[in-house]
């Protein structure tokens, strides 16, 4: 317990050493539009590798590396490394390591622990045994820095938590209390585990803001994101005719009542709500501007071919992260599988 109390889960905007992508292939649900998702993920890979190291997990390193080498500059290629491994899918945010910094007793966070939680396909909705095994294989290979810590007795997805880097972790009741996660634990027990394992001093639970079409039971990274200076960027629905309206108005009311660890109100910045996007069967897809990725000196922002809203979202996120380049990425193909940019990635520190 004493050792874990020294832990701190970094904020995403802190200096990163690397970002992980888990590459799509014919054995995933991306098969019907594999070329399209590969094109989008290549665009993401190039943008990331321009700014920092990139790790790509793929079942076919030769094929993936040959394709990417043709698209990358010399600098980007040098920043990219590959790891061959069988995978079920591509959602690195939820199956990859969650990094915590651990104080060595001198006041410096110089020891990194890579927490390997159990990933069960968002409450046993999808087969995930191969993805759940990726982290242990990465650790055995030595390709990632830090020390792996086995947390396979606890289900936790990276998209379900958001850290301010100072001891506060945000999450949602709809996800962490959903069936087939950590039952029979109740909310109080789950909160205790989060504090112990992540080194958090307080957990902020949100009860509203579920996106229709979201397979995750309401991940925090689809609705509310933390930014520097006690800022919360959140999705706001202004259309009274939209089926999300009441729930997202309730989310906004929740956020207005929140206080920081110092007892002050958060600075709230609303993000626009994309116009409804549907798949070929008429199912609404979970488009959201909150699912952006912060990397060193840049932010990758999802766009949805809605020029006015896309521009507004990029400008808002740019104001929250003033020192970073804003890189828009067309994410219409990503949401076909019910996620977006942040869901496909995981940062290391």
Give your account of this protein's structure:
A hairpin with a 2-residue loop joins β14 and β15 (about 300-305). With about 350 residues, the protein is of the alpha/beta class. It has a single domain (about 1-349), classed as 5-stranded Propeller (L-arginine/glycine Amidinotransferase, Chain A), CATH 3.75.10. About 45% of the residues are buried. The chain has helices at about 1-5, 35-50, 60-70, 75-80, 90-95, 120-125, 130, 135-140, 175, 185-200, 245-255, 305-320, and strands at about 5-10, 20, 55-60, 80-85, 100, 110-120, 145-155, 160-165, 170, 200-205, 225, 230-235, 265-270, 295, 300-305, 325-330, 345-349.
Strand and helix layout:
Blueprint: H1 2-5, E1 7-8, E2 18-22, H2 34-51, E3 53-58, H3 61-69, H4 74-78, E4 80-84, H5 92-95, E5 98-102, E6 111-118, H6 121-124, H7 129-132, H8 134-141, E7 147-155, E8 162-163, E9 168-172, H9 173-176, H10 187-198, E10 202-206, E11 224-227, E12 231-235, H11 245-257, E13 267-271, E14 293-295, E15 298-303, H12 307-320, E16 325-330, E17 345-348
Parallel strand pairs: 2-3, 3-4, 6-7, 9-10, 12-13, 15-16
Antiparallel strand pairs: 1-5, 2-17, 5-6, 8-9, 11-12, 14-15
Output the radius of gyration: 19 Å
Global mean pLDDT:
96
CATH superfamily: L-arginine/glycine Amidinotransferase, Chain A
CATH class: Alpha Beta
Binned, the helix content reads 25-40%
Global structural class: alpha/beta
Q: Write the element-wise H/E pattern from the N-terminal end onward.
A: HEEHEHHEHEEHHHEEEHHEEEHEEEHEE
Compute the number of structural domains.
1
Strand order of the largest sheet: 1-5-6-7
Q: The CATH topology, please? A: L-arginine/glycine Amidinotransferase, Chain A
Percent strand equals 15-25%
Give the overall silhouette. Answer: globular
**Low-pLDDT regions:** none
Our count of helices gives 12
Euclidean distance between termini CA atoms? 23 Å
Strand tally is 17
**How is the biggest beta sheet arranged?**
4 strands, mixed
Instruction: Tell me which CATH architecture applies here.
Output: 5-stranded Propeller
């Amino acid at each position: 317990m004493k050792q874990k109390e020294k832990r701190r889960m970094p904020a995403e905007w802190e200096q990163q050493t690397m970002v992980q992508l888990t590459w799509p292939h014919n054995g995933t649900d991306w098969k019907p539009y594999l070329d399209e998702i590969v094109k989008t993920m290549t665009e993401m890979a190039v943008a990331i590798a321009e700014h920092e190291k990139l790790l790509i997990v793929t079942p076919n390193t030769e094929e993936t590396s040959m394709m990417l080498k043709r698209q990358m500059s010399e600098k980007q290629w040098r920043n990219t490394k590959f790891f061959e491994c069988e995978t079920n899918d591509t959602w690195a945010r939820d199956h990859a390591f969650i990094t915590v910094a651990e104080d060595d007793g001198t006041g410096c966070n110089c020891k990194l622990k890579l927490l390997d939680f159990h990933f069960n396909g968002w409450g046993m909705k999808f087969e995930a045994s191969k993805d759940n095994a990726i982290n242990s294989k990465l650790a055995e290979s030595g390709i990632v820095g830090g020390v792996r810590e086995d947390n396979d007795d606890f289900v936790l997805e990276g998209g379900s938590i958001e850290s301010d880097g100072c001891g506060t972790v945000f999450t949602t009741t709809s996800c962490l209390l959903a069936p087939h996660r950590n039952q029979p634990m109740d909310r109080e027990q789950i909160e205790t585990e989060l504090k112990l394992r992540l080194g958090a001093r307080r957990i902020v639970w949100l009860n509203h803001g579920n996106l229709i079409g979201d397979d995750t039971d309401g991940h925090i990274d689809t609705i509310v994101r933390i930014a520097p200076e006690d800022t919360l960027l959140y999705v706001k629905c202004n259309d009274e005719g939209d089926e999300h309206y009441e729930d997202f108005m309730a989310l906004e009311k929740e956020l207005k009542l929140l206080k920081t660890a110092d007892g002050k109100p958060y600075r709230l910045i609303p993000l626009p709500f994309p116009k409804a996007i549907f798949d070929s069967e008429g199912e609404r897809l979970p488009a959201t501007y909150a699912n952006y990725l912060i990397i060193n000196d840049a932010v990758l922002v999802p766009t949805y071919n809605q020029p006015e809203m896309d521009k507004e979202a990029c400008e808002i996120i740019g104001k929250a992260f003033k020192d970073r380049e804003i890189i828009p990425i067309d994410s219409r193909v990503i949401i076909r599988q019910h996620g977006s940019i942040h869901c496909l990635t995981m940062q290391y520190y």
